[in-house]
Design goal:
heteropentamer; A alpha/beta; B alpha/beta; C mainly alpha; B: alpha/beta; seven-stranded mixed sheet; five-stranded mixed sheet; 14 strands; C: mainly alpha; 4 helices; globular; binds thiamine diphosphate; binds magnesium ion
Chain lengths: 382, 325, 62, 325, 382
């Protein structure tokens, strides 16, 4: 047995050093200025026009989807919705830096990743109308997407649970010899859960190729970040786990793209986790059940509206001559129409047959569930 | 007296408790300036200050761990878990710590002052993470009390009693009734007894037992049965732990029949405890098998919520089966 | 019938409340022939048994 | 065949499973080079490498969260929780995640390959944090299977079946028997069925039902009863969820009497589910009330462990009460 | 509503900065050298002879107690024991820096704090023999001490649970206006539990006057620290929570004393938590159920035996002329005798009457417990 020395890296001092906030600076990577012009000393990631436009269009797409679905919820057509307005760059930018083989485990505000992967309007609608065409069979509330063929793990409401799960998934990918990683999204609120601690620590110790992507959007429902933690954001925790950490401007899609590309490279090459903290703002209400006027000012929202990630990227694209404003407007309008059309079509699709109520509890329904279904059907037929 | 809905009655109870005893503190996710996602803690922070009503970070295990320590210190914490479905990260703190604190210390320390409030139950299109009724998960835990009110009047009186009872209480609020249930509530301070079921209406042919939001369901079913000439005795269990075996058994001795209704899945639900106990204690009085009308043994579904629910129709059919057994 | 006896396998088929009635009358419920489904002993069977009549005994029924 | 104790049988099952399927991975606190505090995972790291058998940090919620993710990826995790008493921090991951994974995704994803092993039960002077029998806490959870072996032969066959069953299984090991129970175990690969109870010996006067370490207890009590001329049918439930209603009810239809024994506290224990179901299904056959011989409704004590235990004497007395009812 | 800005403290950079291990140095406070001589540039805390000797004697006392009780366990007289050999300085040194009003919430290896508070040999024995004289009424395994009059919270086996509890306790002390803090002890293993994360974060956000005292002794049963975490010990996590943090040589009682004094002062003055990481080594087996030869070398143990905290402090005391070696030896021998005598006396004390089995589940036993007791007594009397 080799000797172990858990003090091998520790230096001695003879007067007390108090380690505290402010001791280290965790800067935020920003490549594009507010007007879309790159910072002078910034090196932009290599990106082709096609990818850039796909990223842009996906952001626009989810913005439109959010608007339409909030309206649909107000009209009572769906029961619930949760928008990502203001945070489109974080999720779309990171998704664009991944490969399709990578598993996405998300919290719930990451429709941008899903749209980028190719989830169609019809699929979105099927999920939100809980109908029989939805692979999750209408068993979960709206926004709990899941798409095996897109390597997008079905969303689960309890917060933080996906964090240690992502470590385990990534460990499995590594053991199976796959050239793939797992990315795990969560909010700065969810990062207070015990599962966050467990997941990050395990990933570090067990060398799991996983990207922990924290959307620090300033709020967890009504709770502001300052009542959520007292440290320097979530990034400052990376050090405590021995996890390489990058903080990025979540409203700058180029910065998010670059940081995630780099994180993926590190995770794969070194078989280790990387933590990204994207600084952004939840411009939307928490969900359609929420009214933010109860806990924050319009003024504060307004300041952030000016940092709109879509506008910033549009400006850059225009500077490249890749985006024509009129065509863009037309495209957005077309998307709106398409969403509306699908919505109208899909809301007529029926829900699953009642037999599905007992499926997927186990691999096959045990006798007692079969009996319960028989009784239920007999009752319904009365 | 004032007309209040269930949320207002709870808010009113909290104000009463906090005014009466400055050791009472109310906290949980979003309960501070926002007043909770259901607004049960509205205005408390304004009235009693940030020290006594505050937001916590988003960690249920932390909330209850913190509350346990605070209770053992002598304060009177009323901790909110935003949804009953999210109480499970705190399961260890509740089952291994809260419940065993007094016993393991020989009574030197306890969490007797702790009350945990949480909304539970379905019927709100919430799917399996906003609809669960987890009472039975806790009912296997000596040291805890579990209390569930059925309406605003009950809610205020039982919550005040829970806060003041010298035992940790899990107080589960039927969220389907939060705004739907409205009734007269005394503005003054009052308590209703813990551990006591209430015979809501007397009858002779069968005893119907439920708690919380399902009380409406069995009452509706009883009305339907009444039209068939079946006389139902209706009991609100109110306390799940310790539960009022005496009242329930006295009723079953009289009626000879028992039906228990709960929303949680059948297997391992609290109805099983009731049935097991009653069949033992009232054996020779039973005219028909004790019947459980409960949720299916599946996660709480969304699209088929209506079918899943042990509603008045299923209950009515079961009453007839019992009586005609 | 012999079929009923087979189903009962020597033990009575009866609700506990009926068993109580049998106890109150100090009779062995296994001796009572059931008129109900599969030979289930009903309250009326006990009452009839108490009133007497050899043809209400189990032996007579089988 | 080889003589093995229960721990060796488990170790042997793990070796068999890991040899057979390289996706099988075994992990938990101290399970790596040390081989687990009870040594159930001895030599696995040596044999199969650190990648497939490893220590985790000390976090039960993390272990199960990690295992859930790993299972959903297609690997076959066998996660150890060092003591059943310490499974509660993982309660959320098990009850809200593991169990609902397949359902919520419409079968797209599942944790079907997951097995959670944990030692449970008392009789080892462990007090309330090394003695609990938490099966009932989990038995209210559709989507889980719960399996408990009574001896080395059963342990190997049931564990292999659990690992290979395409549903998440909580495999609870009676730690009192780890070294105490010794028996012949085939060296080759075999499986015993999940969801099936076993009639261990036939009888006509009363059915005795138990699982795990309590099987010894009811067998001993049955022997004592035998001397009084009472013939007991003895059933090992083996699977707590889903449980074998058919076998148990068939037995009770025959004997007319049922006694259930478990170590966990009475209230809300799994015996209540069995009693509730059996009284409903075997109603007209019941000669006496279904009787539960269980732990007291207190935390598991230390100094009075012996008195707390539902032992053969309490069981024997209860058998007599049933038969002479 | 005032505007909030969760980015107010964040600087921007235009190229990615990766935050990782090694970025900051967390030195370990050490005042005494291995031979007991103070480091030249070290300032020792003010300490009088009486306090110093009380600290020293308490260390010796628990060393003796541990030896005796391990022997008693081997002889089958008690069922279980858990020694703190090698770690006496961490617990005794920190306890000495507290006031009696401060609440101690410990893990299980902190008998030094209890002995320092005045828990008697008789009390130790009562607990370990689970007898009727023990305030915990023999309900818990040996070593699960609890003493209300000493402000020592009854120990609970599940690891980490006391951490958020300590935050809550301290919050209550603050709200009650007490000039008191809570100290919470735990191992580096327990620091992996989700409760650690919750407890530290809540203490920081809710301004709780609590000292989190981590004994990093290199092992959690068989699991070495390197398989427990990948960061720089536990201290590096303090930064992530915005908690003032001190790392200290856990085998140097003067350093532990100084650090804890300072921590207490900060906690009270600023109403905030302080994290202390004491670097030490578990010379003992994990417990009497454990055999460390299965996972570590004698050689490694030997290296640490040379850093014996008791010897180091003895040397310093001798240098002060406060300790006489012969008298010390005699005192140790006397302690041994005293422990043995108490052991023999106390092992004859009976356990509680059976009626106690249902007490303290609730404030008063409900009817169903009374019934269960009646049945139990009827059964026993047969
Ligand atoms: C375990 C758990 N507790 C509480 C909730 C209720 N809840 C849903 S979202 C939310 C806030 C989450 O905030 P954050 O993680 O910052 O994400 P954001 O909404 O800002 O994207 C809360 C408290 C939950 N879903 N799960
Ligand atoms: C929740 C929980 N999980 C597991 C255990 C079993 N256990 C007891 S001590 C221990 C190791 C603790 O190590 P550490 O925290 O470093 O403290 P040390 O023993 O080194 O003082 C373990 C795993 C437990 N008591 N509680
Ligand atoms: Mg947020
Ligand atoms: Mg109370
Ligand atoms: Mg340790």
């Amino acid at each position: 047995m080799k000797d172990r020395n858990h003090l091998s890296r520790v230096n001695v001092s003879h007067s007390a050093t108090i380690i505290e906030n402010g001791l280290i600076d965790i800067p935020m990577l920003q490549l594009l200025q507010a007007d879309g012009t790159p910072h002078k000393d910034a090196t932009l990631p290599d990106i082709d026009k096609e990818t850039a436009l796909k990223m842009y269009n996906t952001m626009q797409y989810v913005r439109v989807l959010d608007e339409r679905m909030i309206a649909a919820q107000r009209q009572g057509r769906i029961s619930f919705y949760l928008a990502c307005t203001g945070e489109e760059a974080s999720t779309v930018g990171s998704a664009a830096a991944l490969q399709d083989v990578d598993m996405i485990m998300s919290q719930y505000r990451e429709q941008g990743t899903l749209a980028y992967r190719g989830y169609t309007t019809e699929q979105f609608m099927n999920q939100m109308f809980s109908n029989e065409k939805e692979p999750n069979k209408g068993r979960q509330m709206p926004i709990h997407y899941g798409a095996k063929e897109l390597n997008f793990m079905t969303i689960s409401s309890p917060l933080g649970t996906q964090i240690p799960q992502a470590s385990g998934y990534a460990y499995g990918q590594k053991m199976a010899g796959q050239e793939a990683i797992t990315i795990c999204y969560f909010g700065e609120g969810a990062a207070s859960e015990g599962d966050f601690h467990a997941g990050l620590n395990m990933a570090a110790v067990l060398n799991c190729p996983v990207i922990f992507f924290c959307r620090n959007n300033g709020y967890a429902i009504s709770t502001p970040a300052e009542e959520q933690f007292a440290g320097d954001g979530i990034a400052s925790r990376g050090l405590g786990y021995g996890i390489k950490t990058i903080r990025v401007d979540g409203n700058d899609i180029m910065a998010v793209y670059a940081a995630t590309q780099q994180a993926r490279k590190i995770a794969l090459a070194e078989n280790c986790p990387v933590l990204i903290e994207a600084m952004t703002y939840r411009l939307a209400a928490h969900s359609t059940s929420d009214d933010p006027t109860g806990y924050r000012s319009k003024d504060e929202e307004e300041k952030w509206r000016e940092k709109d990630p879509i506008r910033r990227f549009a400006s850059w694209l225009q500077q490249q001559g890749w985006l024509d404003e009129a065509a863009d407007q037309a495209h957005v309008e077309q998307t709106r129409q398409e969403v509306l059309t699908e919505l109208k079509r899909v809301e007529k699709v029926p829900v699953c047959v009642i037999d599905e109520i007992i499926e997927d509890v186990y691999d096959t329904p045990p006798w007692h569930l079969q009996e319960q279904l028989r009784e239920l059907k007999a009752h319904i037929s009365k | 007296m004032a007309k209040m809905n269930l949320l207002q009655a709870i808010n009113n109870a909290l104000i009463t408790a906090m005014t009466d005893d400055e050791r009472v503190m109310v906290f949980g996710e979003d309960v501070g300036h926002f007043g909770g996602v259901f607004r049960a803690t509205s205005n408390l922070q304004e009235k009693f200050g940030r020290g006594r009503c505050f937001n916590t970070p988003l960690t249920e295990q932390g909330i209850i761990g913190f509350a346990n320590g605070l209770a053992s210190q002598g304060s009177v914490p009323v901790a909110e878990i935003q949804f009953g479905d999210y109480i499970f990260p705190a399961f260890d703190q509740i089952v291994n710590e809260t419940a065993k604190w007094r016993y393991r210390s020989g009574g030197q320390f306890s969490c007797g002052t702790l009350t945990i409030r949480t909304p539970y139950g379905g019927g709100i299109a919430g799917g399996h993470y906003h609809s669960q009724s987890p009472e039975a998960y806790f009912a296997h835990t000596p040291g805890l009390k579990i209390v569930i009110p059925r309406n605003p009047y009950q809610a205020k009186g039982l919550l005040l009693a829970s806060i003041r009872d010298d035992n940790p209480v899990l107080f589960m609020e039927p969220k389907r009734l939060y705004r739907a249930s409205v009734g007269e509530v005394p503005e003054e301070d009052y308590e209703l007894p813990l551990g006591k079921a209430e015979v809501v209406s007397e009858g002779s042919d069968i005893t119907l037992l439920a708690w919380g939001a399902q009380m409406e369901i069995i009452e509706k079913a009883a009305e339907m049965a009444q039209n068939d000439g079946i006389s139902c005795e209706i009991i609100d269990l109110r306390s799940i732990l310790p539960w009022d075996v005496e009242t329930v058994c006295a009723s079953v001795m009289k009626t000879g029949r028992l039906l228990i209704n709960h929303e949680a899945p059948l297997t391992g639900g609290f109805a099983s405890e009731v049935a097991a106990t009653v069949q033992e204690r009232c054996f020779l009085h039973l005219e028909s098998p004790i019947t459980r009308v409960c949720g299916l043994d599946t996660p709480y579904p969304l699209a088929h919520e209506k079918e899943y629910m042990p509603d008045h129709l299923k209950t009515y059919e079961a009453i007839k089966r019992c009586v005609n057994f | 019938t012999s079929a009923g006896a087979a189903v009962r396998q020597g033990k009575a088929l009866a609700s506990p409340a009926v068993r109580r009635l049998a106890r109150e009358h100090n009779i062995n419920i296994a001796d009572v022939a059931g008129s109900g489904k599969k030979g289930r002993v009903m309250k009326a069977d006990i009452e009839a048994f108490v009133k007497g009549g050899a043809n209400t005994t189990k032996q007579a029924a089988s």
